[in-house]
Amino acid sequence: MSIVNIVDDLYQYDERSRKLFEEPCNEKLTLIFAGRKRLKENRILREKLFKRYLVPEYVWTEVVVRLQGYFGSEDTFSDDDSTLINHVTWFHFEIKYPFKDPKTGDNTYAWYKMGIVTTWTAPDQHAIIFFDAPDSIREQLKTACEAIKAGPALQNPYWAHEFLVGPIVQCYDKAVWNLRDQVKEFEISRRKGASVVPDDPAEDPEIETTKAAFNTLHEILRHSLHATETLGVAIETLASICARKRIFDEESAIREAIAEAATPEETSKTKTARVIARRWSKKITTYLDFKLSIVKSLEARAKANQARINSEITLAISSVAQRDSRVQAKIGRVQTRISKAQAEIGHAAQNDSNTMVKIAAVTMLFLPPSFVSAIFSTTFFEFTPPEGDKVSKDFWIFWAISIPLTIVVFAALYPGNKGLMFRSYFSKSGHHDPDEPSNFTSHDSIDLEKQTITAPKTEV
């Protein structure tokens, strides 16, 4: 006869579940797997389940369901409060489980939010309700059920916790080390010469590559933060279980002492059974303390993962800053060369300008005499010298006109000079002086604005 009853998926109130809730239980362990979503949709099934196994209704409230971890317990006594009948506990563990997708090979993750209720009925019957159990933990518990045997260990309500904690801690362990593997991938690639940020921008033509690498680093950091958080809560939950276990043992010892005092003629067989039960109770306590120490060690590993990924992010950011500094230095050197080239161009332009000034000066020096000479060469004038003379006696007229005219033109139009009043006058006549007051007053501006506002709009 099997001493274990496994309900693999409780999702509806049918004949099987009716027998489970209404008929007496003969098995030493009843292991029920259920999903919160289906129980939420089936209120009757949930009420029957909670009533049968003494589950408090506030465990189902939104405040409790959203927590990352908790532990509570409650005792049920006989009518005269002298005999312990039931010991009920409820607790919750939450794990963020990172892993590689077997199909794509990409890093991904899953949240395991496990709610558990244990109901112990004196002297040695256990019921475990496991909400949203991951497949790996479900299979491990099923396998462990095959080795369960009736014995004094079942007389302790916290045997169920010893039975459950092992696979849960193993899941925490895999989650932490899977995350460590992702961190190590970056460290190994960096030691081999790969870098999130190439030293030369030309090696990373697409910024999306660097962006994806930084996103991956921050995803791992986010997983590390969640791992540290959930492990810290798991430590508190396990510590609460261990503390409540010790309180239960102390209360049991007091009840046994009272029973021994009431029945001094107790047989040696009964005393031996109590000694064995206490021994198993201490063994369970030791096991739970050991698992608690493992979770504390995993928390230290999770914090180390977090520190390592923070170090990788800091190194990547420093690499970006160094690369940007080198790029800015190159830009500065290029700008220096450009400035020197521009200065040389400026000097060349200035030299050209000076040359043009000289050419213009020579041109202005010879232009007025040439102009006068051209006029005197026309048929309107007759300066033919008498026979025997090589130069006309009126040659002085040419110089009398050319020299003053050259001086006037040179003074008025010499390049680089603002000119005399003559040039200034013609310059002002062609351009408006900004310092000169305008006839356009502010009233004219206001009238113009009014005309613009009131003007009818035309369709374009």
TrEMBL record:
Membrane spanning residue stretches: 359-383, 395-414
Top-level division of the source organism's lineage: Eukaryota
Keywords from the named record: Membrane, Transmembrane, Transmembrane helix
Protein name per UniProt: Uncharacterized protein
Lineage, uppermost ranks: Eukaryota, Fungi, Dikarya, Ascomycota, Pezizomycotina
